[in-house]
Predict the 3D structure of the following.
Amino acid sequence: MATKKVTVNSGYETDRTNLSVIYYEGSKAVFMNDANMGVSISGDLAQASRKCDITLMNTKDGETRAVAFKLGRRIRILSGKNELFQGIIFGYEINDQGQQSITAYDANHYLTKVSDSYRFDNKKASDIVKYLCKRFGIKMGKISDTGYAIPKLILRDKTLWDVIVIALTETRKKNNRQFSLQSKGGYLHLVERKEQLTRMYIEDGANLIGATYSTNMDDVKTQVSLTGGDEDKPIHAFAVDTNAKNVYGTMQHYEHVSEITNEKKLQALAKSMLPKINKPEQEFNLEALGIENVISGTSILVRESMTQISGAFYVITDAHNFSPDGYHTMSLTLSRTFDIAEEDYEPPEEKKPESADGSSSGTTTTTTTTIKGGKAKVPQIVRKWEPTVRKYARANGIESYTELLLALMMQESGGRYPDLFQSSESLGLGRNVLRYEASIKQGVKYFASVLKKAGEVKLALQSYNFGQGFIAYAKARGGYNMTNVKAFSAAMAKKYRYRRYGDVNYVPHVLRYYEGSTKTVTTTTSSGGKITNSTGFIRPCEGVVTSEMKQRWGRAHEGLDIAKPGTVPIKAAASGTVSKSYVSASYGEVIFIVHNINGKTYETVYGHMRKGSRRFKVGDKVAQGTQIGLMGNTGRSTGQHLHFEIHNGRWKNPVNPRNFIKF
């Protein structure tokens, strides 16, 4: 790889830029070279487009505008004959003194403004880019061949940017080739990373103005403890990075993964998690004299002795600032890795089958089970514990469920094992650690919490077996029924290639020990032949939960913190309307979304997003799974992560996201 050494020997005087701004009104071009004009051009490797901000005095006499800028018009920035930016005006502001600011984005910004549904079979990502450009009238430049033909992509309600990012992510997974989108001269280009042949050199005493290196070990985990399968009879896995532990100390991540019931697979997961969380966060930032072709996606060589930022880096974000007096400086965020935007492909749910007349059924069935004076059919070895079970049932406000709890005990242990409710694992303990009364106390308490979340008995019972993730899944699809039970079990088994997942007959297995027990009310609603898509919550991003919803640092932590290094897309957890989108002192860059799910209102919060990555404003409609920003470290934050909240109703009514989403 060739290296171009760019140095400046005598300060700013040699770095003045002859900048021109050209505004196009139809066929008319207006040239602006006013000395009072400032220009900032910025980009982010994970964003679709580059942005240009212009400030100027737009008046001739202090009373009238010199140029009547209009939205949607083209604008170009030139340095001599070299074009630095070409884009479209998306916004402007002017005050009574004639001070005007203009915001423009390059043509790739339209990739985030067009949504549709698509299906592609055996198409390369480069073919998909060409198809989308032709369909929506986007000018194409060089489109590099991505090589891999993706067997099938079904994408619903996705922006063009999301479609391309998903296709490029699938390509990278198969052939390890990385591509980025660029806009040059008003044309979209798809360029492979290896095609950059020149690196720029930035160093002390030449063109470097300032550098900052920061690192933080708050989110480091040196060992991982996992449980899997049934929460009441879990399997266990453990992995430790001895070297990291010796350096940073003992910091353990714990997680229950109900979908995995094989110990070898769980152990493999634990080992694979460690490299992602066992290193401190690092940030490399520098300011230097401007080099026009150093933008996000390019690579540079740096040498700075104090911070010891030295070696080859990729530019992740860039901001080129051209001051009114012509000085050109740049601010860069660097990374050792090429952190391009990625988004995993999640196949959509299949539609419901059509009826005989060709219309979709669109019916929703809700089953609610209540208890009325039933009696457990259990042997004396179980019945003798009835007073103890009743005591703890009363303490948890579910005394009327005492007989059902005895039936549950019969299913779990038959009274033959000391851990009568098999409840040790629900506390993160080893198998059969709790004995007799301690097991009853924990088992009843756990069932009470599951029942409260489920709202009805059969759903609570099945969730005792499947894990609490089944509650949100079932509620989003009409409640407990065998169709949902089998679908959930089959989906989990298929996803992880297991022979089976949980006991699909757990409810009848418990109720066989309970007579005169249940009254079931089933209600069915119709959507008039239309398909009603469920909109339960999904995970908002990839990563590891590093902080739970609990009291922390003397106050309530009203959500989950999810951390992952690199460029991490944040998605809307459910479809809804943006209620807030701003920069908060605490949340940093944050978006709030209000949802209506099965007639009930929720509000989600996504905090600490990367600076400038928010894609939506108040009032925008967003579909579930749509990228709304990038994981960052803004606001009161000690490292890159997403702070995610779910509120029952509007904000200020926080509930644990784990009640709705499997993390």
In short: Residues 207 and 635 are 31 Å apart (CA to CA). The chain has a mean pLDDT of 82.
